[in-house]
Amino acid sequence: MGKLRQTTLILGEGPTEFFYFKSLCDVFKHLTIKPDYPKHTNIKELDAKIAEGVAMGYSHIFCIIDMDDEGTRSQSVLNIKKLKAKYAKPINKPKKGIYCKVEFFETYRCTELFFLYYFRYTSRPYDEQEPLLKDLNQCVEYRKTIDFFIKTKGLHGYFERNGGYLEKAVSNANRSMDEKLQSGRNYTYSGLGKLIRILKNL
After folding, report:
1. 60 within 8 A of 4, measured Cβ to Cβ
2. Residue 5: its pLDDT value, please?
3. Range name among 52-56, 110-114, 145-149, 156-160 with the lowest pLDDT average
4. At what angle do helices 43-55 and 74-86 cross, to 10 degrees?
5. Whole-number CA gyration radius for the chain
6. What would the mean pLDDT of 56-60 be, rounded to a whole number?
């Protein structure tokens, strides 16, 4: 009997994550990756999308959360903690043929920090998204629009064609998480390096 194919659902908060992870399908050819995002970026919608993915039989569901102003408000932090607790253990329903592991990965301020990490490291605090996008644009032209995402013919490939490297992004993201742990800082970090490592090992 052949090895069961791993099916992965990646839930981001909007089109940025959708287009980025779609562009990684060529890198992780051994996986069936389906990026998706809720219509409304709130925890209730995310929870509904997770439940939908579990019912559809995905073996892994990875949720990407932007810890921007909304994500760092006390109520939002509490809601995220509750959601993480709800899915802390894998969902195992043998009679229905369901086994699914749900994991969460946070980035502060947003996924664009991981894109910047393709090119260089920073631990600079970003109070708003604009200075981060400006720093990214010093490395590569980038517009946060669906038209631009389509024009690049795949964000990952576009970054690598312009001098960025996925391995560098992973290394920089992991460094940011190590520094966060050591110093206790609550800004400028990305858990997406860990996610990429998990995808490679599935």
Report:
1. no
2. 53
3. 52-56
4. 20
5. 17
6. 92
Comparing 17-21, 48-52, 56-60, 77-81, the range with the smallest average pLDDT is 77-81
Summarize pLDDT for 119-136 with one digit per residue, the tens.
999 999 998 999 999 999
Conformational region of residue 138, where left means phi above 0, alpha means psi within -120 to 50, and beta covers everything else = alpha
Q: Which residue has the tokens 């925890």?
A: 43
Asked if 188 and 113 touch (Cβ cutoff 8 Å), the reply is yes
How far is the CA of 117 from the CAs of 40, 140, 143, 183, in angstroms? 27, 12, 16, 20
The pLDDT value recorded for residue 2 is 33
Tell the residue number behind the tokens 């024009």, with chain if given. 151
What's the pLDDT score for residue 71? 53
DSSP 10-68: EE-SSHHHHHHHHHTTTT-TTSEEEEE--SS-SHHHHHHHHHHHHHTT-SEEEEEEE-S
The CA-atom distances, in angstroms, between 127 and each of 20, 68, 121, 137, 140 are 24, 9, 17, 17, 21
- From CA 109, how far away is CA 125, in angstroms rounded? 9
Contacts of 16 (CB under 8 A, 6+ apart): 110, 111, 112, 144, 149
